[in-house]
Amino acid sequence: MGHDVVLGCDDLDEAIELFTSGLGLRLDMITPADDPRLAVLSGHGRRIRLERRGDRPVVMPDVPEIELTRAAADDVGGVGRAGMRYRDLLPSRRGGRFIASHITIPGAGPVPDYVHHHDVRLQFIYCLRGWVRVVYEDQGPPFLLGAGDCVLQPPGIRHRVLESSAGLEVLEVTGPAEHPTHVDHDLALPTSSVDRDRLFGQQRFVRHRAGGAAWVPWRAVGFEACETGIGGATSGVVDVRTVRTLTAGASTPAMRHDGELLFWFIVAGSGTVRVDGRADVVLGRDDAVALPAGVDLALVGWSEDLRLVEVAVA
Question: Edge to edge, what strands does the sheet with 206-208 contain?
């Protein structure tokens, strides 16, 4: 097809619309998902590389030991891929290794998505509120992801977001932070075959349903956890679980992790995180925190309505 034609644009979405709807090209790749700056399109024997003007090279900020992001009523997030809004939960990107986003879709109805896949090491979606209908390669017909449900999207699996309720909110954690999204123009979903044990990049697709799932004791008396099965499907690369309290004022003894990432997102409730040698951190609904490895930390005085999503990467 020859060399890419590189074009600058002020509004990437507007330029993509012009080249696809107006000139009959097709979108092949876009990146990054939370704030698209680059798109590749093809057609009529040419490849067009659209680059948003005015973007400076991305410089990752220093990785803080404790990275805290607070919920704010006026923080609706930036517009990302397929019109979804992305609130950044890890501004440092942990040195480029991870991105965590609180994604919302304000209006109900169809989502302007397409069959696509990602070049990732790991990626999962946890539904916080509302519902979304999705479909995945070799996983059967479309299904609803509701509050407390989650999916592991293994590397390269084709999928598509079809429609959502009004006010859908999901948590998405992905590594690495910068990764391309490739459009698959040839595969139709759902696929005619179903192979739920298929491996994609040595990982297996997981669909965890919160309704009827078992709760087991967590790390301390007064807490329970609901496992998602993601740990087993990734051979221990990442564990994802929901944690809840059984009594008001629940606290844990000191504990620690030695992995690459420990990330907590507060779905409901409030309380304090105490990290050895640092000031206490008070957390509430929709706050998120990434915690340092190799130090003692504890949950102190948590409310009885706590729902916490824990992500632990080995």
Answer: 78-79, 85-88, 99-105, 168-175, 122-129, 150-152, 206-208
